[in-house]
Design a protein that fits this description.
Helix content is about 0%, strand content about 50%. By secondary structure, the chain is mostly beta strands. Strand 1 and strand 2 form a beta hairpin.
Length: about 280
């Protein structure tokens, strides 16, 4: 386990998946520590897909490839490329095993930096291949809600009507929508929302949300500029909520499986680097 510290803010990471495992301000923990009773992970990084593919399969250049939900980064051992008191850079490069699932040469860096009461998360995907790369990346941080999520609200940056697109299987999106906020800026969390998995917002307006306990004031802010999709997820009665900014989304039920035209897929030209950043700030 690797540790970063900056004043009262301390973060811990596992080299497996370059996963954030703890974020404390003083003695207060803000990250779900993982428990197989509910969910063994804490903050997996999603790469090179977010969510699932129809039949765990996609077609690229006329050939079928197989990837399981959220891709392989979360199960991959990253190299620590740089480590100092308040910054760590993790690196994952392609291998023959990844090439069988995702036929590109790449360098994927995850850079975590502590800044005052904030953890900055930066994804850098370098296309080292001779072809245009099609890829997705996203966060899946689980935030500890010791009292249960129903004491918490998601505060939106501005009034909006928040519509969730329904998942029809763990891997695919349908076209049915449900409205969870009607011209408002507060989403009170309910376990009922997650009976069928996640809330999926394809048209979220804004670049941040605040998770706040309405009784104690315990709060954090997640900022995610340039991530087009936002998801919320937990398990029934679990003491955490995942706030997930994604560049990519699940296949639709009627997907044709063509990777190049997949909804939300990102395009990276040869020798270019794709960058996205989000942050977690203790309030």
């Amino acid at each position: 386990m690797l540790t970063l510290k900056n004043g009262n803010l301390t973060a811990k990471f596992n080299e497996l998946g370059a996963e954030l495992k703890s974020l404390k301000y003083g003695e207060t923990e803000y990250i779900w520590g993982g428990d197989e009773k509910f969910w063994a992970s804490s903050c997996p990084v999603l790469f090179p897909i977010c969510s699932g593919l129809k039949n765990d399969t996609y077609n690229l250049g006329g050939k079928d490839y197989h990837l399981t939900k959220h891709g392989f980064a979360k199960k991959s051992l990253f190299t620590v490329e740089k480590l100092c008191e308040d910054t760590v850079t993790f690196l994952l490069c392609d291998t023959p095993e990844t090439f069988d699932m995702f036929p590109y040469h790449f360098e994927f860096r995850i850079i975590y930096t502590l800044e005052s009461k904030k953890l900055n998360v930066r994804y850098e995907i370098k296309n080292s291949d001779g072809n245009q790369m099609y890829v997705s990346v996203g966060g899946h941080e689980g935030y500890l809600c010791p009292e249960g999520i129903e004491e918490y609200d998601i505060l939106l940056p501005k009034k909006q009507t928040l519509v969730s697109t329904t998942l029809t299987s763990p891997n695919t999106l349908g076209y049915e929508e449900i409205t969870v906020v009607d011209n408002g800026n507060v989403l009170p969390l309910k376990y009922d929302y997650f009976a069928v998995d996640a809330l999926v917002f394809l048209n979220f307006k804004g670049s941040n949300v605040i998770l706040m306990n309405r009784n104690t004031g315990r709060a954090l802010k997640v900022t995610f500029k340039d991530f087009p999709y936002l998801l919320l997820w937990t398990k029934p009665n679990a003491p955490y909520i995942c706030i997930e900014p994604w560049c990519g989304i699940a296949d639709r039920d009627d997907s044709d499986g063509i990777f190049e035209t997949k909804q939300g897929i990102c395009h990276i030209k040869e020798n270019e680097t794709f960058v996205r950043e989000h942050s977690i700030e203790i309030l």
